[in-house]
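Model it.
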Amino acid sequence: MKDSMKNNKEKKSLLQTVKASFSGRKFRSGAYVTLISTIVVVIVLVVNMLVTKMNIQFDLSTQNMYTLSKDTKGMIKDLKDDITIYYMIQPGNETAVYQEIADKYDTLSDKITLESKDPVLYPTFAAKFVDDEVAENSFIVVNNTNGRAKYIDGNEMLVQELNYETYQNETKGIDVEGKLTSAIQYVTTTDLPVMYVVEGHGEAAIGDAFNASMDKMNITVQTLKTMSQSSIPEDCDILYINSPETDFSAEETAMVKDYLKAGGKAMVTLDYQAEGLDNFKSILDYYGIEMENGIVMEGDANMHLTNNPHFLVPSISNHEITTQVESNKIPVIMPISSGLQISDTKRSSLKVDPILSTSDKAYAKEGTSFTTYEKENGDIDGPFYLGLAATDTYNDITTNLVVYSTEAMFDESTSTYGNAAILSGTIRFLSGDAAPLSIPTKSVVPEMIQLTQQQAIFWGAMVVIIIPVLILFAGVMVSLRRRKR
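Modeled.
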């Protein structure tokens, strides 16, 4: 009997213990955690199913490699013609980044269709649209409304450079969006801009980087010997004068002025060594721009490259030309520049806006025989403008003139900096309503950091002095605390 009662008590005690464990604080806490975890898992599963079903993707690449730019999206939104992008590729050989970016165009607009074509299975297909010898892994963009077409070589979508250590080409950037957007603009635009590059005065030759930029913006580039012309050609949309070394004749000067007064658009770069160009300078002076003598040195260590006060990193003004540079925070480099000033013009119709400029500490050294970069007596005091945009509107006719004060503004040596974006911004400013698009190439290599003199001094001090001192101080404090114990 006693054993039975004892067993009953033990069972009752066990039941109470179990019941208490389910009603205790630990159980409630554990149950809450389990419930929340279950809910979170369910939500993740549901979201994952929805994302997969709706094909939602996020571009986490550093340069938004798989995301189309606002300019491209705006162009696609305004399309009126039906476009087909033919990807010339054998099934299974697709380049993933080519395919994914091209798919974005198809997805964004019902006016664009992406279609793959096997060049081996259809060897004569491309000949219906283009005369080019079409390679595999390339594109043909066709306007089905007007019949215009443009071929894009797949190799041109890769920006490659020779590695002189391995003697192998290495991919530095991908330009799929830039090439496709350019091709779509080409086939949908019948009146493409024409640029005439002036020759005959020792002008600097335009390089491959400049020509590539013009090709990307669908601008036809032609040369013009003004000495043998009676007028600037009527189809000239932009006149480019690239650092002349000898002066224009009176007839040439009058010709250029007449072109500008009639609503012409011009872009000018200057050579600091050019002297005595009185006729040529009179063109600039008429539009409120004066060229100073000498090479500009920057006295602010934060506005030139390390140990190179004549390799300027100018201040960038808020202007439609500089929009891309400002939004992407890309530095502009201006080596061996002369200075510009805005003259006191009397015409109320004329407006001259800064684009690039030095600090108040800048100064200019005349000639090339100076022995020090430091400021000396006789040097010309700054500040200076390094880029100016003049706009003259009279009787509803608008003239635009943009001037930069270095021959190297758009050559190969500066093409990897923000100068390329300044070039495309200048072309768009001068083109007005017919502004072409230029989508920047997206880099696939880590960006190189260019330090100004001041930044180099700061980080050098941090590494050599400040960080070691902090480590030493921390060690002394730890040692003193241990001794007190």
